Amino acid sequence: MAFFLSLLLILMSSSANAAYWPPSPGYYPSSRFRSMSFYEGFRNLWGPEHQRMDNSALAIWLDRNSGSGFKSVRPFRSGYFGASIKLQRGYTAGVITAFYLSNNEAHPGYHDEVDIEFLGTTFGKPYTLQTNVYIRGSGDGRIIGREMKFHLWFDPTQGFHHYAILWSPKDIIFFVDDVPIRRYPRKSDATFPLRPMWVYGSIWDASSWATEDGKYKADYRYQPFVGSYTDFKATGCTAYSSRWCHPVSASPFPSGGLSSRQRMAMSWVHSHSLVYDYCRDQKRDHSLTPECWG
């Protein structure tokens, strides 16, 4: 009898834990694309003294003197871009750890950007993963962000997890451990980034807004704040590829588009982990985000 009771408790515990994990997407794009070392595809951009290789992982950190950032060697016009990232535990309020696409250096004040950003937090509260899309100008006085924010179904400080962006001519899809968490479709040329972008990573002080709209600031008593990156992937059509270069897919379909299982997994994430959607924010001026209309 004791054996059967123990077995029942184990099964109940497993079922309870499974309820808090998304269903399998059935397809794992990260396994389809070759991993590269950091130096194979990236270079330091700023803060070289706040960057080091730790075994096969790149560690970048922020202290009161500086943060650090890196950039891909090549610009892309579409592709799959990913990295496995481990975040700092403890008090990280005001700190942003990011992996993103941008052409800010080529088009300052009038650039495109696709973000995965981890918003630092206070003791006992989870990180917020923020995804964002900017189109042709986020520094020209008309800041039009398209934020969707999530609380992850795991602790991102306990180990490496894979975060990725699929950018195709049809849509942008964000992934966490191969689970699609957001799809941003191309509904018009005016609301979709079309110019080549580079891949970036960085850690920096964003105390003015990062944690609860700036309520909690970076506290350098807890420095250094470290982000670790490994298993880099950057595959697709570069800005120098021929016009016949075929965009990569992150689904079982060569033409792109999520499968029914991928859509089911993304629906689970939206039901269980989504904490903010700009299209549902009634305080926003949605004349500036027409993609929210339908």
Q: Whole-number average pLDDT?
A: 91
CATH class label of the domain at 36-238:
Mainly Beta
Got a strand count?
Answer: 15
Largest sheet: 8 strands, antiparallel
Percent of residues in beta strands?
25-35%
Helical residue percent band: 10-25%
Separate helix tally: 3
CA radius of gyration is 20 Å
Named at the architecture level, the CATH assignment of the domain at 36-238 is: Sandwich
Distance between the termini: 58 Å
Q: Based on helices, strands and strand pairing, what is the structural class?
A: mainly beta
Q: Which residues sit in consecutive blocks of at least 5 with pLDDT less than 50?
A: 2-18
CATH topology of the domain at 36-238: Jelly Rolls
Question: Strands of the biggest beta sheet: in what spatial order?
Answer: 1-4-13-6-7-8-9-15
Shape: globular
GO molecular function, one term: xyloglucan:xyloglucosyl transferase activity
Family: Belongs to the glycosyl hydrolase 16 family.
Organism: Rhododendron williamsianum
Protein name: Xyloglucan endotransglucosylase/hydrolase
